[in-house]
Design a protein that fits this description.
The complex is a heterodimer of chains A (113) and B (115). Helix content of chain A is 0%, strand content 56%. Chain A is built from no helices and 11 strands. Chain B is mainly beta and 115 residues long. Chain B has strands at residues 4-6, 11-14, 19-25, 30-38, 45-51, 54-58, 61-66, 71-76, 85-93, 104-105, 109-114. The chains are: A mainly beta (113), B mainly beta (115). Chain A binds chain B through residues 4, 31, 33, 35, 40-45, 48, 55-56, 58, 90, 92, 94, 99-107, 109, and chain B through 4, 6, 8, 32, 34, 36, 41-46, 49, 88, 90, 92, 95, 100-108.
Chain lengths: 113, 115
């Protein structure tokens, strides 16, 4: 069984730029959730995708957007990067019939300068 | 006030000790309670998953949920240096609830088990 994978591992951007992060869900999982984890904090829910549609969103501005593809992989896009966007971005996959059992990828460490 | 409060520690214990990690919460809609372990620079790993109140045991780990007090605990028996990590509690509402499937995490407790 293949686990959740994310790319890239690390990314450095400057303020105002745009970034795309990628996630491949675990085999058999059809739902993907994205979380932002600032240093020393717990993960915060950004949004969730099921059947290529956004299925719930946390308290994040519209410049955070996402996509889910037919193979259940997903992208997180962040426009107009701000310094406070520096964080570990985590992707978690689950089955739609068990949304609370989420398995996380290793994350992408984003640094905004 | 945060929906989920977790003492960030850090917590340092000798090998073999019993470790107690705790979270409190304010949202009475939470029905699912999870504990994750996160090693440095890694993603969280699901350790324990419980529904509603009660206890659940898995090897050296025991999870307890007291919904009347809005308090959950994770106990680690015979702690090992390999248990050194950050432990995160997470919660979610039942199906039909607005936060179903959207996990709300505590801040995490940093645990070090020294030989």
């Amino acid at each position: 069984e293949t686990g959740v994978t994310q790319s890239p591992t690390h990314l450095i951007k400057t303020r105002g730029q745009q970034v795309t992060l990628r996630c491949s869900s675990q085999s058999g999982h059809n739902t993907v959730s994205w979380y932002q984890q600032a240093l020393g904090q717990g993960p915060q829910f950004i949004f969730q995708y099921y059947r290529e549609e956004e299925n719930g969103r946390g308290n994040f501005p519209p410049r955070f957007s996402g996509l889910q593809f037919p193979n259940y992989s997903s992208e997180l896009n962040v426009n107009a990067l701000e310094l406070d966007d520096s964080a570990l971005y985590l992707c978690a996959s689950s089955r739609s019939e068990g949304l609370n059992t989420q398995y996380f990828g290793p994350g992408t460490r984003l640094t905004v300068l | 006030q945060k929906e989920v409060e977790q003492d960030p520690g850090p917590l340092s214990v000798p090998e073999g000790a019993i470790v107690s990690l705790n979270c409190t919460y304010s949202n009475s809609a939470f029905q699912y309670f999870m504990w994750y372990r996160q090693y440095s620079r890694k993603g969280p790993e699901l350790l324990m998953y419980t529904y509603s109140s009660g206890n659940k045991e898995d090897g050296r780990f025991t999870a307890q949920v007291d919904k009347s007090s809005k308090y959950i605990s994770l106990f680690i028996r015979d702690s090992q240096p390999s248990d050194s990590a950050t432990y995160l509690c997470a919660m979610s509402a039942d199906a039909g609830g607005t936060s179903y499937g959207k996990l709300t995490f505590g801040q995490g407790t940093i645990l070090t088990v020294h030989p």
